[in-house]
Amino acid sequence: MEGQPDNLFDAALFDDVALVLRSALAGDGDGVVNAFNKATTRAGVVGAYEVAWSLAGATVGDDIALGPWRLDFPGIEEAAYDKRWVARFLSAYANADEAIAEALFGAAIADGKLPQCLLTLAGSAIATIRHRDGGSGARS
Questions:
Q1: Rounded to 5 degrees, what are φ and ψ at 72?
Q2: Ordered alpha helix ranges (H), the chain
């Protein structure tokens, strides 16, 4: 079927991303965390990373020109850890730089900040989707 995942792993990833987005759309922070925990149970840290990478794709969108892209966020060093992390993770996605994204993921784990970073990433994805769709939050 067109638009459907090609294999079981992709279907599980699709389900995990959908669960994160549904929870974030409902304002259910615990649901977002539980959805990431489900991905981690399914596939370890790689599962959570793949969900985060997919959320970055939903946030950045499909129509991005090839980079390189530069992070232009005045005052980023003064921003909270999770906001700096999300900006840098999205920049890594926009530049198709998975090595940087993986390093950011690892740093957030080491710093004990990954749950908050993922929650902020989910919120950013929902805010972006709502903005693109004129505030409805539903994609057509």
A1: -115, 90
A2: 8-25, 29-60, 81-94, 98-110, 114-132
Looking from the CA of 138 toward its CB, the CA atoms found within 13 Å total: 2
Structure tokens at 17: 């991303």
User: What is the CA 60 to chain-centroid distance, rounded?
Assistant: 10
Per-residue pLDDT tens for 7-22? 445 888 889 999 999 9
Q: Are 19 and 32 in contact (CB under 8 A)?
A: no
- In the block, residue with structure tokens 């730089």: 97
* The residue count for the chain: 140
Whether omega for the bond prior to residue 68 falls within 30 degrees of 0, making it cis, is yes
Residues 111-120 have pLDDT tens digits of 999 999 999 9
